[in-house]
């Protein structure tokens, strides 16, 4: 495996899936660029990259406490409205969002993470 392989992980320290992604890549000695969404919100451009590939509704954690707490099940929002809520409340996302080269993944997805290392 080439040593220049690196991944970017967008997540929250309290997220078990984010920690699983960090562990997966550390065990394989892959360089990680970690973005703690509690400290620095994801940029609109970066979020757009994931929403273009998967769609915003796939990225939303509709079963999560934050979704319920913010009453999103009852609100009718435009996509921009959802994007703004996600930027303000990253726990609405199925974390982590992981980018390795041209491969994108969200949530706990070891199969996609392994594909990032194939390139």
TrEMBL record:
Pfam families under this entry? ArsC
Q: Which domain of life is it from?
A: Bacteria
Q: Which family does it belong to?
A: Belongs to the ArsC family.
In Swiss-Prot or TrEMBL terms, this protein is called Arsenate reductase like protein
- UniProt source species: Deinococcus maricopensis (strain DSM 21211 / LMG 22137 / NRRL B-23946 / LB-34)
């Amino acid at each position: 495996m080439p040593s220049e392989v690196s991944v970017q992980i967008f997540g929250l320290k309290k997220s078990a899936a984010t920690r699983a992604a960090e562990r997966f890549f550390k065990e394989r000695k892959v360089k990680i660029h970690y973005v703690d969404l509690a400290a620095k919100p994801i940029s609109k451009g970066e979020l757009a990259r994931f929403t273009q590939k998967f769609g915003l509704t796939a990225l939303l954690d509709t079963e999560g406490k934050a979704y319920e707490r913010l009453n999103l099940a009852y609100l009718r929002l435009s996509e921009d409205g959802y994007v703004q809520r996600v930027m303000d409340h990253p726990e609405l996302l199925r974390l982590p969002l992981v980018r390795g080269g041209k491969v994108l993944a969200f949530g706990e997805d070891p199969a996609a993470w392994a594909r990032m290392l194939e390139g």
